[in-house]
Amino acid sequence: MPIIHIVLFEFKPTTSHAQVEDGAFTHAFISEFQNAEDRKYYLEKDPAHLEFVASLEGVVENVRVVDFEPGVL
Asked: How many CB atoms lie within 10 A of CB 5?
């Protein structure tokens, strides 16, 4: 069963407008993985994802992550 992975970002107040718009959680990314192993690879080993995470250092105030399987409570 697929896993939906949602990430919400709130940027630090010191982050410039050129970097992000005003507001709390202003950006969201939604990914779908076919299984837990694919999600684990993405989070722990995918070079593009790891580079993206590193690029957020110093500009992100809060991050919220929600993972769920559609139809499962």
From this structure: 18
